[in-house]
Amino acid sequence: MKTARRLCQLTDVPDGHSKGFNIEGQAIFVVHQRGRVFAYRNVCPHLNVPMEWQPDEFLDSDKRMIQCAVHGALFLIESGYCVSGPCTGQSLTTVLCEVRGGDIWITCDSD
User: Fold this and answer.
1) How high is the mean pLDDT in each 10-residue block of the chain (111 residues)?
2) Strands of 2-9's sheet in order across
3) How much is the pTM?
4) Domain Rieske, which positions (predicted)?
5) Which CATH number applies to 2-109: 3.90.1300.10, 2.102.10.10, 3.40.50.300, 3.30.565.10?
6) Where are the domains of the chain?
7) Counting CB atoms within 10 angstroms of each CB, which of 37, 45, 67, 84 has the fewest?
8) Within 10 A of 72 (CB to CB), how many other CB atoms are there?
9) Are the beta carbons of 96 and 39 closer than 8 angstroms?
10) Which of 49, 14, 41, 56 lies closest to 97 in space, CA to CA?
């Protein structure tokens, strides 16, 4: 069964930044880019390791792509598709998300 859950206010993730969350044991992160919000599971498809450099740091230095901290693979923010690195052609696992009333909501599996 899918359940919608409120993560935080949109203002908690400034435009051009990212933030990680742990929802009932599921690590995810969101990226706020040019007014849009994207959410993914916090797992690199290559090594199944967390993506961030340090807490809430999922983006490259230009804040144009998601970057894996372990091997530097680069992923498109809009789709999670890997364009550079050992997992080129693979994608991050998307988590459905939307902004409602100034809050970020995700839709995830529930027990």
Assistant:
1) 89 96 92 96 91 93 94 95 95 96 87 54
2) 2-9, 103-109, 94-100, 36-41, 26-33, 17-23
3) 0.92
4) 5-106
5) 2.102.10.10
6) 2-109
7) 84
8) 11
9) yes
10) 41
